[in-house]
Amino acid sequence: MLSSCGSKKNLNASGNNNLKLKAIEIVNYSKSFLGTPYKYGGTTSRGMDCSGLVQISFLQFGLELPRTSSDMSNFGKSLKLKNVEVGDLVFFRTSKNHRKINHVGLVVKKYGDQIEFIHSSSTRGVMISSIKNPYWEKNYVKSRRVLN
């Protein structure tokens, strides 16, 4: 079972190529945390939750996001899952007990309709998963673009 995770700056960059490069930098930085254990409220290599991973990955490049996955889910531009690109955020509701969005991932790869995202799982820590996994397909709620 996966668990929830818990100052804003305009994230504009000039030019489409600059945005793609920035997204790749953010994704590559996030991958440096692969294997980091899960820790609710954590934002360091000693332990982190899903929104902590996303927040610090963007913050490393001077881009501030809200702290919680629920707040992040209202930040940036809404988009359909089929239109996500590397660097976009995907949001999930992973428990029937939660009415709000309680999980976020960062898209690290897209090829066709195959989308992979990095996130922090409460059972396995920071890892990469496929949106095509039945668990994630069932719990997917929405996507947002914060780099624009």
What is the topological layout?
Layout: H1 16-31, E1 43-44, E2 47-48, H2 50-59, H3 69-72, E3 77-79, E4 89-92, E5 103-111, E6 114-121, E7 125-130, H4 134-139, E8 140-145
Antiparallel strand pairs: 1-2, 3-8, 4-5, 4-8, 5-6, 6-7
Helix pairs in contact: 1-2
Task: Describe the structure in your own words.
With 148 residues, the chain is of the alpha+beta class. It has a single domain (16-145), classed as endopeptidase domain like (from Nostoc punctiforme) (endopeptidase fold (from Nostoc punctiforme), Alpha-Beta Complex), CATH 3.90.1720. Helix content is 24%, strand content 27%. It contains four helices and eight strands, in the order H-E-E-H-H-E-E-E-E-E-H-E. The strands form two sheets. A six-stranded antiparallel beta sheet has the order 3-8-4-5-6-7. It has a two-stranded antiparallel ribbon with strand order 1-2. A hairpin with a 3-residue loop joins strand 6 (114-121) and strand 7 (125-130). Helix 1 (16-31) packs across helix 2. The protein is globular and about 40 Å long. Residues 6-13 have low confidence and may be disordered.
Short recap of the structure:
Helices cover 24% and strands 27% of the residues.
What attributes characterize this protein structure?
27% strand; six-stranded antiparallel β-sheet; alpha+beta; 148 residues; two-stranded antiparallel sheet; endopeptidase fold (from Nostoc punctiforme)
**Assigned CATH class:** Alpha Beta
Largest sheet: 6 strands, antiparallel
Share of β-strand residues: 25-35%
CATH topology: endopeptidase fold (from Nostoc punctiforme)
